[in-house]
Amino acid sequence: MTNLMKHIVSPRLAFVAALGTAVPAPTIKPPVAAKPSVVTTTPDLGAIAKEIGGDLIDVKTLAKPSEDPHFVDAKPSHVVTLNRADLLIEGGAELEIGWLPPLLESARNDKIGAGSPGLVYASQNIRMLEVPTTLDRSRGDVHALGNPHFLMDPQNAKIVAGEIADHLAQVDPKSAAQYKANLAQFNAKIDAKEGEWQKALAPFKGAKLVTYHNDFVYFANRFGFQILETLEPKPGIAPSAAHIAKVIATMKSNDGHVILVQPYQNRKTAETVARQADAVVVDVSQQPGAIKNTNTYVELMDTLVHTIASALQEKK
Ligand SMILES: [Zn+2]
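Above: the input record for the complex with zinc ion. Below: its predicted structure, written as tokens.
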């Protein structure tokens, strides 16, 4: 090693030694502008953000695909992620009210504060279903502003994508044209696929579905199903014996033979009900990535549509 090289290398070694671990050598950042750092609360919003932003943005998601979006485990790493965000996409409609507000307070990031272009409320232009006439959280109902599971309607996915494209264009104007083009492409893809989905589900129009949580109303609305019952007496409230007995009776007298359950819901309860009501328990997910081959929004809906169609066919 020449004296000159020693001179260059040694400060770096000293830096590594000071940290006490074998961290990679610090690199000098390239002079190009960094990609906007986009954070989404849930994976479904992350999947749509990727459709609009593509390689132009970095997307991080706080909730895991297997986690209940109402009750996410808040971690210190979430605070760091939110602190560095250029854009936050949240559901709006209080889906995340139980865990997001304290994280945002700790993150202290004005870029994603209320009213700034860096904050997207996905529900902004959504026609909400089941909006209660009076706001009542007293009994633990987690749908106090209406049903927040609106991404189960593919037409709502287009509305949310439009909102995201609009905010990305404000935060990162140099790529506005590309975001707009990606939005047009996503919308066209959804419209084409919705034709397929409607066709696959058409033979089952009017079928009655039972869900664990009240999370399929937008899906039922779009594709012509009826949500007969939910195993939870109210959104976010665990099933009680009395309520379960009522659900079983309703299913028996109304031809309800399919119970939809997501990975974080109590499958055992659903199985008990299914045994007594001659029904099948069907594993589904509303979050991309929880079930195999569901990484994009379209793949997720493809899987949902085909899983539900085969269960209804089986019990026809
Ligand atoms: Zn809910």
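Notes for the reader.
The two ends are 79 Å apart (CA to CA).
The chain is about 45% helix and 10% strand.
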